[in-house]
Amino acid sequence: MATRYEVARAAELCALLREWPPVFPTEIGAPIQPLALGIHDALKILTRPEIDDAQLKQALRGYCLGLGYLLAQGRSGAWRHDLAGNPVEPVSEEHRRTAWTRFKTVKAHRERIRVTRRVAQAAQAFSTASSVDDPRPETDVRRSPA
């Protein structure tokens, strides 16, 4: 099922095209369909004239590396779809395994980024809190010999 991320990546990709192909999700919760092999060539035909191939490839890559897309491609029994959304062939076992491996890798990478951000935010909050002037007078807590 498409999340906000997949819908946004699909919108970025389809903004480069003259029309929005039905295979791409248009709303959160819509099914994500693995794309047919060679879909790039079919997309080039729909690309707006001012868009170069590098932009199309980058947008397609961004969509295909989304967790939802990788999960859809990695599912057992998944089928690839043409631009109209019609199933054209099953996802090969090799591609299914590769998608599942990438899914786990991307998910772990994103989790590391989240943890790093949380640690940085906590350190910033601690630094800000400890730099606030303490209204108590400083005292020497060392005991003097009796």
Keyword list:
elongated, Fertility Inhibition Protein O, Chain: A, Domain 1, mainly alpha, 146 residues, 53% helix
Structural notes for this entry:
The chain has 5 helices and 2 strands; from the N terminus they run ααααββα. By secondary structure, it is mainly alpha-helical. The chain has a single domain (4-125), classed as ProQ/FinO domain (Fertility Inhibition Protein O, Chain: A, Domain 1, Orthogonal Bundle), CATH 1.10.1710.10. The chain has a two-stranded antiparallel sheet. It is elongated, with a radius of gyration of 25 Å. The relative contact order is 0.13.
Going by CATH, the homologous superfamily would be ProQ/FinO domain
* Count of domains: 1
CATH class: Mainly Alpha
- Stated plainly, the CATH topology is called Fertility Inhibition Protein O, Chain: A, Domain 1
- Shape estimate: elongated
Question: Given the helix and strand composition, which structural class is it?
Answer: mainly alpha
Discrete helix count = 5
List the helices and strands and how they pair.
Blueprint: H1 4-14, H2 39-46, H3 53-64, H4 67-74, E1 79-81, E2 87-90, H5 93-131
Helix pairs in contact: 1-3, 4-5
